[in-house]
Design goal:
two-stranded antiparallel ribbon; 7 helices
């Protein structure tokens, strides 16, 4: 029985096509000499396939990091609602009924602090932090990417790591002594101080995603 192949093989990876390969019974199946691909083409196909796989895994990893920032922003941004309600309540209570509450200013601070800190990574994801780009914008995209990597390595990561480690100590001390607020003796102080290392952890995650994107741009000349 003869079987003739008239279409290219492995064309997806760019390997040279095979045409008119005839397999004659068991003998043809055992004889690989007529159906042997060039070793160079096979090697190139495997390398190309591996590179595509690595690129996809790296892209998925970066997108996973960015999803953490995305959802942290979507969740903690809603702290603005209780903050607004509390401020309005205290203003009305103080100005209209002349009945201020001693705990209101502290609770306002304890909600406002976590609100703007816990969405810092979300803001970094969308490049919403204040930056002076008068000179920065004059450079080419590749030079800007190099400057970004430099500032991340020299300033961003060291700062975040130091504050993260000190924030852990700060929060642990607060939990261990059962710290309360000064005026209203509120017991939420340790939880509020725990926001510090959590915020820096989120910033480190997003900073790593940004750093990888800039390195890939420097190497490949295009975004990941």
């Amino acid at each position: 029985m003869e079987l003739t192949l008239q279409r290219p093989l492995f064309s997806y990876w760019g390997v040279q096509p095979l045409t008119n390969v005839t397999l004659n019974g068991a003998k043809g199946l055992q004889d690989h000499s007529a159906a042997t691909l060039p070793q160079n083409d096979i090697g190139q196909a495997v390398i190309s396939f591996k590179r595509k796989g690595m690129k996809m895994r790296l892209k998925a990893f970066v997108q996973g990091l960015e999803k953490v920032s995305e959802w942290s922003g979507r969740i903690f941004i809603w702290l603005i609602i209780p903050l607004t309600v509390l401020v309005v309540f205290e203003v009305i209570s103080r100005r209209v009924f002349n009945a201020p509450h001693i705990w209101a200013p502290e609770v306002t601070d304890y909600i406002y602090g976590p609100h703007f800190m816990l969405v810092a990574a979300y803001t970094l994801l969308y490049r919403g932090h204040v930056s002076i780009e008068v000179i920065y914008e004059r450079f080419s995209p590749k030079v800007r990417a190099i400057l970004d990597c430099f500032t991340y390595l020299v300033f961003f990561f060291p700062f975040c790591i130091i504050v993260f480690t000190q924030g852990i100590v700060f929060a642990h001390t607060s939990w261990s002594i059962g710290e309360t607020s000064e005026s209203a003796a509120l017991t939420i102080v340790p939880a509020v101080k725990t926001v510090i290392p959590v915020t820096l952890a989120l910033l480190l995650i997003q900073g790593l995603a940004n750093f990888i994107r800039r390195v890939v741009f420097i190497v490949r000349g295009r975004e990941i």
